[in-house]
Amino acid sequence: MKRVSTLHCFGLATALCVFLSAGGSAPIAAQATRTSSNAPGATVPRLPGGRPDFQGLWLKSAGGFQGLFIGSLDGTNLAAGGARGGGTRGGPAPSRYEYTPEAEAEKMDRMRRGYEDPEARCHLPGVPRALDQPGGLYPIQIIQDEKYVALLHEAMHDVRIIPTDNSRHPRNYWAWDGDSRGHWEGDTFVVDVSNFNGRTWLDMAGNFVDENEQVVERFTLTDADTILYEATITDPTVFVKPVEMRFTLKRVPAEQQILEYSCLEGERSLQHYTEEDGGKKLRTK
Amino acid sequence: MNIRSLRLAFCSIAVAGIVTALALTGDAQTQRPFTPARLSDGKTPDFRGIWQVRDTAYINIEGHPAEKGIAAARSIIIDTPDGKIPYKPQSLAQRQENYKNRATADPSIKCYQAGVPRATYLPTPLQILQSPGNFAIVYQDNHAFRVFHPDTRPHFDSADWWMGDTRYRWEGDTLVADVVALTDQLWLDKAGNFHSTDIHIVERYRMTGADTMDYEARIEDPVVYSKPWTLRTVLYRIKEPSARIIEDECLEDANGVRHHISPDDPKNLLKSDYSRWKKPTQK
Q1: A188 part of contact set with chain B, CB < 8 Å
Q2: Is residue B20 part of a domain?
Q3: Cβ contact (<8 Å) for B280 and A100?
Q4: Cβ atoms < 10 Å from Cβ of A185
């Protein structure tokens, strides 16, 4: 049986297969069900219970970490608040990965072996990489009720069904995406992510975490069509200080839809080829 | 309590019992429809929850004898006289070939998404996510999901997908989904039952009680089958309070690494173990 699929949705070269426009020019969904005129964030859509309604199809704007590393493999990161990274003007100073000496050596080693990126082997990206996919490529469908916020990622058909009850992480459970438990802080949905299996890379450039990774994510609707996403990554055995990440997700027009992503190996993506097999030599300083 | 009142009590119990029995019989005979709870809009039937079948149709939807560790099962095909798929002759030969090679040829061994309807009757749970205007099913197996789109817009069928393209509508309290654009690399079970890209499925999801849901799929594929046929199974609600869909990352080799390409294939570039990072200290 022939193995090759109709679609290889991996890498920049396949950006075109992300989603389609089924025609029409319906206005961008602004299905505010209830608004209160004097509260902060008054224009954001809300569920009947009053919580902000994140539902819809979303696409990462420019910025984030991975988006930068695709163009800049030297480790420079201007994403969080940086002017070039698409952050907000006047935001905090750019954050960098600051490794322990051992982890720095490991990172440099992995950078040379980009073909070992687990995502290139079709593994789940982990958190926050699930959201920090190359900007503009893969949308996220959010479905939400009073008990959970579910993120359906087109990329890697990754799914996170995040309970909103601030329940405890399970014992004896480790996963590529860890275990996510959410709660509300006002209009911000805060997610604590733990129980990682320690195998994920943060990007294609060898930045990595181990199973001591902990992430706190903050989702905030800043207007009807914008989610501010903030993540703080701590990993005491890898980083000497927490890493801060920030970017926005923009609402995708309602006439577009999420498509199926099917990760199949054998892609001609130079990023993941060894030098002897024709891959690019990466700058390693 | 005197004899008379005792008799009366017995009588009442007996009458109550008969009435209950009649009611139950009536229920079974007339299939009085169950009315599911509603979503926050007060209209949409609420199918939310974690569900799983109890049969072993994933082995062979035509039924199968007992195997090591697996109980025998009847066919879940309801509208052919022998419970078998009405294959055209040449397709039946292909099925027999698939069956012979099933240990290695089953696409699910390659970590591909299971397809429709196979994902429904896998021995792993699924979760229905729903809100007014939204309907999606997340399958634990291989973290596949399907976003159901209203049938007010046409199918997106210019490509073939592992999980197809789904358009749905409500017929009363039954969700009716129309599924096309499935790749022909899918199997319907572990026994090599298969279809072509011409497959067209009409699924019907109907709650029959607070914790049971009938699932029916009418399947037509004029390339492979001589006539349309229908399978039916029951999804049961998983009721453990802590039940969740957990991450099911499909792995093909003993080191926990996923390869669609054989390790011996020259195209496979994984030449060392990327997970050898030994952290200096542990929590």
Answers
A1: no
A2: no
A3: yes
A4: 9
Query: Chain B: residue nearest A258 by CA?
Result: B147
ipTM summary value = 0.84
Could you write out the DSSP letters of every residue in A52-120?
B---EEEEE-S-SSHHHHHH-TTS---TTT-TTTT--TT-PPPP---B-HHHHHHHHHHHHTGGG-GGG
Which of A6, A259, A264 lies nearest to residue B160, judging by beta carbons? Answer: A6
Domain ranges of chain A: 48-277
CB contact under 8 A, B107 and A177: no
Q: Which of A165-179, A196-210, A223-237, B211-225 has the lowest mean pLDDT?
A: A196-210
Digit-coded pLDDT (tens) for B27-53: 444 567 899 999 999 999 999 999 999
Is residue B35 in some structural domain? no
Q: Which residue of B has its CA nearest to A107?
A: B277
Q: Which residues of A touch B197 (CB under 8 A)?
A: none
For chain A, the average pLDDT equals 75
- How many domains is chain B built from? 1
Are the beta carbons of A55 and B113 separated by less than 8 Å?
no
pLDDT at site B8: 53
Phi, psi of A80 (to 5 degrees): -75, 95
Nearest by CB to residue B138, choosing from A2, A159, A262, is A159
Nearest to B149 by CA among A251, A27, A263, A19: A19
CATH numeric code, A48-277: 2.40.128.20
Contact flag B247-A210 (C-beta cutoff 8 Å): no
**Amino acid letter, A50:** G
**Residue B75: domain span:** 49-237
Residue B179 touches chain A, beta carbons under 8 Å: no
| Domain presence at residue B86 | yes
Query: Measured in Å, how far apart are chain A's first and last C-alpha atoms?
Result: 45
Alpha-carbon distance of B213 to B53, in angstroms, equals 9
Q: Which residue has the higher pLDDT, A73 or A96?
A: A96
Q: Kindly indicate the confidence band of residue B184, based on its pLDDT and cuts at 50, 70 and 90.
A: very high
**Highest mean pLDDT range out of A71-85, A145-159, A250-264?**
A145-159
Residue A74 — pLDDT band, cuts 50, 70, 90?
very low
pLDDT-above-70 percentage for chain A? 66
Q: Considering the domain boundaries, does residue B170 fall inside one? A: yes
Note the pLDDT of residue B147. Answer: 97
* B130: chain A residues, CB-CB within 8 Å: 143, 145
Q: Who among A20, A144, A237 is closest to B281 (CB)? A: A237
- The dihedral built from the CA positions of residue A175, B114, B162 and A257, taken in this order, carries a sign that is negative
